[in-house]
Write a structure and sequence with these properties.
By secondary structure, the chain is of the alpha/beta class. The chain contains eight helices and 14 strands. A seven-stranded mixed β-sheet has the order 3-2-1-4-7-13-14, with helices on both faces. It binds ribulose-5-phosphate.
């Protein structure tokens, strides 16, 4: 099958937002900055790179702006990241042309010891999940507050086709959780977000599969089928710890 590019499917936005990368860096909490700084060591010249979304990733983009030539172009997980990359002089690449990728770097809202994640606090979960799946290595950058024993204290975001909102909400209630419509938010894909409280997540992989099978769900914010390969945990006191799945090999992934 031949795959051609079609500008009608472009993910780029025409909206212009001014991004002040110096401000991003000066305002960055120490833990997020330490994680982003440590992730720079994973990037090799000429790698095909994907860049996630969120405030930690914005710090990474600001740091990349200070290293011209390290990443000339990358695939972005959100329009917000595209705008930060524009400000950093990093070309935004189309995954259809650039993939499969060598490396994906992204943040998370929670990570357990198996490097399974909850993501979607910034409503970019679907593109994040696509890029993670299309990447050989997924490096997740977080501060210490994101590490948890069990996923689920952070309300689980689910991206939903607008007409399916009530149906999906009823299914979530049937599964024992409490869905909350994220008011005023439309995803980059034109959908809505349900933030689901009180999910008891004993088996992230099973729940991810179950939720993604509900008609109307685009994807849920559980990243268990494709978790991170490496977690970089930035410390408020400076420096970062690296956590690898090998250290948690007793857990099912
Ligand atoms: C966006 C995400 C982000 O990675 C997650 O919300 C973490 O964000 P931050 O780095 O701002 O704490 O999943 O959809």
């Amino acid at each position: 099958m031949s795959i051609t590019s079609n500008t009608a499917f472009s993910t780029r936005t025409t909206q212009v937002m001014s991004v002040d990368l110096a401000h991003v860096l000066s305002q960055a909490p120490a833990g997020k900055r330490a994680a982003a700084e440590a992730a720079l060591a994973d990037i090799e010249p000429r790698m095909a790179v994907g860049i996630g979304s969120g405030s930690t990733v914005n710090v990474l983009i600001a740091l990349l702006a200070e290293k011209p030539g390290l990443v000339d172009g990358a695939v972005a997980a959100s329009r917000g990241s595209e705008q930060h990359m524009d400000a950093a002089g990093i070309e935004v690449l189309d995954l259809n042309m650039a993939g499969p990728l060598d490396l994906y770097i992204d943040g998370a809202d929670e990570s357990d010891a198996g490097l399974r994640l909850i993501k979607g606090g910034g409503a970019a979960l679907t593109r994040e999940k696509i890029i993670a799946a299309a990447s050989r290595q997924f490096v997740c950058i977080v501060d210490e507050s994101k590490r948890v024993q069990r996923l689920g204290e952070f309300p689980l975001p689910i991206e939903v086709i607008p007409m399916a909102r009530s149906h999906v909400a009823r299914e979530i209630v049937r599964l024992g959780a409490d869905p909350e419509y994220r008011e005023g938010v439309t995803t980059d894909n034109g959908n809505i977000i349900l933030d689901c409280h009180e999910f008891r997540i004993d088996d992230p992989l099973a729940l991810e599969t179950q939720l993604n099978a509900i008609p109307g769900v685009v994807t849920c914010g559980l990243f268990a089928t494709r978790g991170a390969d490496k977690l970089i945990v930035g410390k408020a006191s400076g420096g970062a710890d690296t956590v690898l799945p090998a250290q948690v090999s007793m857990l099912s992934r």
